[in-house]
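2024-03-11 09:14:02 DEBUG pipeline.ingest accepted 1 chain
2024-03-11 09:14:02 DEBUG pipeline.ingest length=97
2024-03-11 09:14:03 DEBUG pipeline.predict start
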Amino acid sequence: MVAIGGGAGGGSYDSVGGAGGAGGLLYSANLAINNATTYTITIGAGGTGSYAAVGTNGSNTVALNCTAIGGGRGAGGSRSSYTSTGASGGRGIVTGK
């Protein structure tokens, strides 16, 4: 199984800003699944970019009790003084077993 969180949107203000981060990655080559079982999988959406503000975080991807965290938003900035902080990057976590 491969699960990847949605990438984040980049931010900008006055044409200066940072790119959004990549979504978290989960990988397992030895995951036992049953073809007679229905599994729910949620695909994380990518964040939106912005010209006049920070971007938005990417959404999480969830599959088989595993969560790949979406990427952190990009920061906005300015050639003169305005700055903002980007968000934490993506990661993978395993819940349940």
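2024-03-11 09:14:41 DEBUG pipeline.report The two ends are 16 Å apart (CA to CA).
2024-03-11 09:14:41 DEBUG pipeline.predict end
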